[in-house]
Design a protein that fits this description.
This protein is of the alpha/beta class and 272 residues long. The protein has a single domain, classed as L-arginine/glycine Amidinotransferase, Chain A, CATH 3.75.10. 25% of the residues lie in helices and 21% in strands. The chain contains seven helices and 15 strands. A three-stranded mixed beta sheet has the order 2-1-15, with helices on one face. A three-stranded mixed beta sheet has the order 3-4-5, sandwiched between helices. The longest helix has 17 residues. Bound molecules: arginine. Arginine binds next to loops.
């Protein structure tokens, strides 16, 4: 199945502040290399047959390349982001404009949430469930708000390790009903909830998770993931998926990888 994605080029990418443990403003970023790596990710997705929309980057927003954080959509309705940190706050407006221009139903958020960074959608479980992370960025109040806006059950999962500050650094949806995750990023109760809902999940270990392996994009068959996560790639292949490795060393310096750079757009299903 072909998918629709949104990406934003790293034209103004930089590590100028530290809002997650991976960011160190003292470390040099090679913006040209970041651009090449980003372009290769974009081409990888289009070569797989998917549509990638590009949101123009804005000066003064060095984290805007992490397009996943700008919103979260299900069946043509978009729940807007409201960033925790002032440095990223104006990114939400750029995403808002993108959806408005294309006629999507966009509902702005009253509660703090970072879009697909902390929300994931599993279409094939119980008619469609939303998995939602909290503990570092998104407020639990946004989980209830997302449920009201999107009309899907939201399962709240508490993140406990600051290195995995967004849900998408520790959990990924692989296909209609299957996920991959790193249990250590979640509270004991959340681990139990995940084990109950997803007994067939692909489990990642510390090394996979620390290599940003779970920050992946899957179309249900091909799984595009960070090339450093070799163990996870093997586990995914053994589970029947086709891992496609991409190198994103520069964007990792901002605390992100494949999924952070890619927002999935979920339009309304075609009317029959
Ligand atoms: N530097 C960005 C931040 O800390 C990275 C965001 C990564 N995005 C993601 N979806 N996990 O906000």
């Amino acid at each position: 199945m072909t998918r629709e994605y949104l990406m934003c080029p790293p034209q103004h990418f930089a590590v100028e502040y530290a809002i997650n443990p991976w960011m160190d403003p003292a470390v040099e970023v090679d913006r040209e290399l970041a651009g090449k790596q980003w372009e290769l990710l974009r081409v990888t997705l289009t070569d797989l047959g998917h549509t990638v929309h590009v949101l123009p980057a804005r000066a003064g927003l060095p984290d805007m390349v992490y397009a996943a954080n700008g919103a979260f959509s299900v069946d043509g309705t978009v729940y807007g982001a409201r960033f925790r940190h002032p440095q990223r706050r104006s990114e939400a407006a750029a995403h808002h404009r993108f959806y408005l221009d294309r006629g999507w139903t966009y509902i702005p958020a009253s509660e703090t949430n970072e879009g697909e960074g902390d929300f994931a959608y599993v279409p094939g479980v119980a008619g469609g469930v939303i998995l939602a992370g909290y503990g570092f960025r998104t407020d639990p109040a946004a989980h209830a708000e997302a449920q009201e806006v999107l009309g899907r059950p939201v399962v709240s999962l508490r993140l406990v390790d600051p290195r995995f500050y967004h849900l998408d650094t520790a959990l990924a949806v692989l296909d209609e009903h299957r996920i991959a995750y790193f249990p250590g990023a979640f509270s004991t109760a959340a681990q139990r909830v995940l084990a109950q809902l997803f007994p067939d999940a692909v489990l990642a270990d510390d090394a996979d998770a620390l290599a940003f392996g779970l920050n992946l994009v899957s179309d249900g068959r091909h799984v595009v993931l960070n090339s450093a996560a070799t163990g996870l790639a093997q586990r995914l292949a053994a589970a029947g998926y086709r891992p496609v490795a991409v190198e994103l060393t520069e964007l990792r310096k901002g605390g992100g990888s494949v999924k952070c750079c890619v927002a999935e757009l979920r339009p309304a299903p075609p009317q029959t």
